[in-house]
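note to self — DONT lose this again. spent like an hour looking for the file last time. sequence + predicted structure for the chain T wanted, 347 res
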Amino acid sequence: MRVTKKQALRLICALVFLVLCFTAAKISATLAAGLDSQKAAERWAAGGEEDYAQISVFLSRDSGFTEESISGISDTVDAALVTASLKAEEDTRLWYSAYSTQIGEMELTGNRRNAASAVVTAVSGDFFTMHPMRLADGSYLKADDLMQDRVVLDTKLAWQLFGSSEVSGMEVIVNDTPCLVAGVVQPETDGASQVAYGDKPRAYIPYALYDQLQTAGEGESQWISCYEAVLPDPVRNFAKTTIENAISAGDGVHIVQNTERYSLSHRWDTLRHLHDLMIIPDSTAYPYWENAARIREFDTAVLLGLELLLLIFPVIYGLRLLWKGYRFLERFMAEKRKAHQRRFRTI
């Protein structure tokens, strides 16, 4: 069968669109896989048989969520796991959690009285297990540290205060309070995190030190703006429902299941409600890692829309070819039948 120039051009266009579609899908998968802050459940499972989910809760100041709320959440989660017949092996943990609050900018002073203004985040629990930023020096903060006067600096702040990134053990003054540098972390290098991180240097302090600084006023409980947990998810949405029940989600409380946020179904839902990503409800203040994840949500949803558009022509062209093939086969079989009938009439 002779192929015309028009048919050849259509075939080439269909193949080009398919290549572009697969390229967009590959880029989308790369973007989704680039955020360590969204892969805590995957790291915790570590190839085991149990399914885990990572759940993040973002809270406005009006939610009234404080450190006193944490023990109640732990009791509720433990009870739910027992009810589901989930039990940790000896000397292991079945789940873990972390919480944090971005306090705002504070003045920090290093050696030679070098001072810098930095965005300070109070953290507790397994924060650096949830957010394993690359260590440039020293160690992370841990919930069971005996001394709660250690801080973690990012490399920007370490260079501004000390002229080096190898400064673990050095003294730093945080709001007139002497502290020791536990370690120095390297900010994430992916595009979304760099945009969300901003140009300001950052420091991470223990929640106990946050209490000492009394930034919210004397005698007032310190507000928690972000609670995160990784727990078993034996059936779909078990982990998310457990956290919702533990926190009593309401106004000023926004819960995200990080584990599924880049799945095909979620990307399609995000594409259909893309404007929702532009709205920050209530007085919720998202930390930079959540803003980076939302940027990736937007990017992957738009890429899904591009993939669908690029598929339209190849799909229509493919269906047209199938229809032509079917008609050709139908004509071929009809001619065969006629030839067969003529053969027997001749005999």
